[in-house]
Amino acid sequence: MSLPRRRFGCACCGLAAALFAGRLAAQAPASGRGFVVPGYRPAPASDEKGLWSLMDRVEGELKLSRFVVRDPALNEYVRGIVCRLAKDHCPDVRAYVVRTAQFNASMAPNGMMEVWTGLLLRCGDEAQLAAILGHELGHYLRRHTVERWRDARDKSDFGTFLGLGLAVAGLGAVGQLAQLALVASTFGFSRDQEREADEVGLELMTKAGYAPVAAAEVWEQLIAEYKAGTAERSRQLLFATHPDPEERMGTLREAAAKVGGESGDRGHERYLAKLSGVRAQLIGDELALRQYARSELVFERLLARWPDDGQLWFAKGEVFRLRGEDGDGARALAAYARALETKNAPPETLRGTMLVELKAGARDRAQAAFEAYLRAKPGAADADALKMLLAQ
Amino acid sequence: MTRVDVGRWRAARALAIAAALVVLAGCAAQVQRQTPELRRETGKLTRIVVMPLDVELAQLTAGGLEEPHAEWTEAALRHMRAALEEEAKARKVALVDFQPERGAPADRETSLDLVKLHRAVGVSVIVHQYLGAPLPSKDGKFDWSLGPAVESIARSHEADYALFLFVRDSYATGGRVALIVIGAALGAFVPGGAQVGFASVVDLRTGDIVWFSRLERPHGDLRTPDAAAETVKALVGDSLK
Description:
Chain A has 392 residues and is mostly helical.
């Protein structure tokens, strides 16, 4: 009884191998393929069109989402950078700024790009943002989604036939291992695509006149954040499908050095000005995550770039005030004081000062800060609540 | 940094599991109602807003992935809408297509969120009303609701009811059929394509789901007009008069 079954199983396995061997051989994304043509649309009955249409519907929902940041100046700015990078492909790509306080951006096969606000907060200049946008455009230009879909489909087809064949042959455990290897290889495929998108991104930003080194800096910054010991969940999310960031940073730094390194446009002051309409919200969203070690690092890094920015000094003070560990009160007050020396300290700097002074028992100084707060922000919604705190 | 949105398919997968459970449990009841018939005012046709049909057609690959198929989905939407019109005629009600550009901006967003809410509520109805996981608080009653937010649709479309419809329909590829045949020869059951879905009629004064129907079957087609009409009849044929 077991003999014919076993033989059939092997034949089945052989059939599957014959069916799919050709496809599997051509799996890795080949570097050097051309970009899609401008105005590209997939064939109506294709798998690619299926993916596009699905994302068209998702985009229809996204357009109405309250998480999309509507600030017209910011949107026009991001759109401008996309067009500077994408050139003839500009009309095929739509960028949406989405209010999510994490470092990420994504590209759908139909040209829908999401740029998360956590990414905007973290960039030190326009060139860094351009590096990420260029990377995302790389995914679009090389049609990575459909490539990955086909990879997953072929491997799952192969894995299913293989699993059936091996199970029939009485080698079920081998089948499971083989399927695990296939799953791992789809992740590997994804990492290859990320490397390719890095290459394309660097090419686009260099052609557009941005300083190529900014691409490596982005990863450097991200690595430092992870080393601050937080964001474990984001690590899993991003790093399962992305290459090791240290490797990535090294590769990008070498490649950037070859194509101009430090020279090129940075858009340092321009970036800050264009973000001004939403920056207070981005800072508030970052603080709300209560990942203080990470936030402290982010704000310190940004302060190294804009040392006289009151919003950033305020943000740093807030990190210490909210964390409230030993010595944080003094640190918060120092940061607030530095903010108040700048031109753009938010009124809430005085509110923070008041709360920290009150906690330290310095009632007079708390009272003075409270009065200064009301002068800076007449009709503040929290005035009565603060007054109650002072009266206690 | 690329991702494909798979949330839509997750609901379909939950329903596929539901369908399998239905087969095992031999559950019979299809339609649930809160009221025996539609509210009608003399001299006026009852107006029902057809919400954007939440329909996706896909081919089922050998490996069990559902590959969205745009042409089939577009054809299905056309055929289903036409078939709904026939059903409406038989009931003497007026169907009005939902138009996202109508109404205040906040209303528009709420209206489309309701389509997503219906997706979630519908799955809950199936799990708790049909699949042997009853909620003690319901005490056997069918009293599900999308809540008063549906007023935004009533406002922008001057209608009495809204029809929500969710269908995921998949068709086995050649590879999948081969697997089914091989599997059958070896005594293993490999599921093929399936049609799963549900429809609700919602009272726009309250948000209550006054009528609910579900469909889970291994056959049925939406790619041609006649087959789509058959599916629509199977889904809404027993709806309120």
